[in-house]
TrEMBL record:
Name this protein carries in UniProt: Integral membrane protein
Keywords recorded for this protein, A-Z: Membrane, Transmembrane, Transmembrane helix
Membrane spanning residue stretches: 21-43, 49-66, 86-103, 109-127, 148-169, 175-195, 216-235, 241-265, 277-305
Keyword Transmembrane: yes
The keyword Secreted is annotated on this UniProt entry: no
Length: 324
């Protein structure tokens, strides 16, 4: 049986390979933005008596989303009976920095709960084994909007009512509905971060502009419908209807950029997810510095051009030469 230290060494090698694939330029842009956004959110939550208890749940749900999509679970199960203990240690290591910040603020209970929930994620089954395809309920969304069909089955069906309940519970302050909208956007990112097979694009038989237009209409249409209750709670609260409309425009525009980022770097899932993370980070940093809105505006034009250029190779030639 492979020892624990050998497994952790293998995971470090895989992480190093992933970082090299992302590239140092993207990392130089992504890491500071993510650290700034997540660090600021963590500090704000840690200094609040109630919101600090949302941190363990957020960390656990993030790890659970990644854990249930892992492709090596079957291999680990057959090669090492104690693999779930390995996963528990690995997830605990990922949660250690967050727990350390909470301890620094004196939130020992939330810190311990963060580590416990992170380790407990290892007990969850893979997403593809959690339910037989014969027993899946018929989706409320068109099959063409496959990101919504698969994404909600993977966790969105329970995430949406939970976020709605949080927004209603904290309706007396704009922070509750806004955080619920951010949470719902993160759920959608996980759905739009995985590229579909190339045959699905080729069989669409549309020009790049028509294809992107259809993807944007479907994605933003369903997003507007699902976000409407959260925006209504924001509008009837202290923020007012005007603020709700502004948040809706920004929120939908950001989702549109995430859809464009998916096809701008298709089919490289690593580049897709890192670019989407960078877009979200820059958008959340916009109120902090006047340079960030300019960067986001430049990203809009770049993603529109790059996505059409990328799709032109797929839909025009019927095949794709993956660029390094």
């Amino acid at each position: 049986m492979i020892p624990l230290h050998a497994y952790l060494h293998l995971r470090r090698l895989l992480l190093w390979r992933l970082l090299r694939e992302i590239g140092w330029l993207r990392l130089a842009l992504l890491v500071p933005a993510l650290v700034s956004v997540l660090g600021r959110a963590l500090v704000l939550a840690a200094s609040h008596h109630y919101w600090v208890w949302a941190v363990p749940g957020f960390v656990a749900s993030t790890l659970a989303s990644a854990h249930r999509q892992r492709a090596d679970i079957r291999f680990l199960a057959t090669s090492a009976p104690a693999y779930r203990r390995w996963l528990a240690v690995e997830y605990g290591i990922w949660a250690l920095p967050v727990a350390g910040v909470l301890v620094g603020f004196g939130d020992w209970g939330a810190a311990v709960l963060t580590l416990v929930l992170a380790a407990a994620v290892a007990a969850l089954p893979p997403a593809r084994e959690s339910r037989s395809t014969r027993h899946r309920a018929r989706s409320l969304f068109r099959s063409e909007a496959f990101e919504w069909v698969s994404g909600l089955r993977a966790g969105g069906l329970w995430a949406w009512p939970v976020l709605l309940a949080v927004a209603w519970w904290q309706r007396s302050t704009p922070l509750g509905p806004v955080l619920a909208l951010v949470g719902w956007l993160l759920v959608l990112i996980s759905s739009y971060g995985t590229p579909e097979p190339i045959t699905m694009l080729v069989l669409a038989a549309r020009t790049p502009r028509q294809f992107l237009g259809r993807r944007l209409v479907l994605g933003l249409g369903y997003a507007a419908l699902t976000a409407a209750p959260l925006l209504w709670i924001l509008g009837v609260g202290p923020a007012g209807a005007g603020a709700a409309v502004g948040v809706a425009v920004v929120w939908l525009g950001l989702l549109g950029l995430l859809i464009l980022a998916k096809y701008a770097f298709y089919p490289n899932e690593t580049h897709i997810r890192t670019t989407q993370g960078l877009v979200v980070s820059v958008a959340l940093l916009m109120p902090m510095h006047p340079a960030y809105p300019v960067l986001l505006l430049v990203a809009v034009g770049g993603l529109i051009w790059q996505s059409q250029r990328r799709l032109r190779r797929v839909l025009g030639d019927g095949k794709l030469k993956v660029e390094s």
